[in-house]
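Hi R.,

Here's the chain you asked about this morning:
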Amino acid sequence: MNELYSGLITGVAFGFLLQKGQVLRYDKQVGAMRLLDMTIMKFMLSAILVAMIGLYGLNEFGLIKFSLKETVLGANVIGGILFGIGWAVVGYCPGTAVGALGEGRWDALFGLAGMILGAALFAEVYPQVKATILTWGNHGKITIPSALGMGPWPVIAVLSVLFLGIFWFFEKKGL
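And here is the predicted structure, written out as tokens:
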């Protein structure tokens, strides 16, 4: 039961941050798709940076244990294309659709209905997908640090500098 409460608390906190970061706004979503407004990109890169440091830190102290999933390039590419098409058509990704609905934007219901329909279709074709797409480019359970043959902290340091450079560039260009 504690996991349910912690999920609820982190979900509410994430929704609050989505709303305060203005990433639930349709104009920000469209601006991201048109590469004219990098608010969502900055939000995502910030979340990735905080998650990398936090998760690897918790792992170092033995407070969590990673449960890696296999890296399957075919599934990632096809899933990414479908995700991108859905985001471009509806104007919301899954998290922002739920957040927008919470703000009273009823148009997000169409996106959420599409997600549910897509999940149902995926469940129906899963046996075929498992035998085909989920085998294309299967590299096993890897991480970027393990693929590079090093620990996580040098990778996190390089990505931190890279992300900060991207933030600086976006701010300089007014994006």
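One quick note: The chain has a mean pLDDT of 90.

Cheers,
M.
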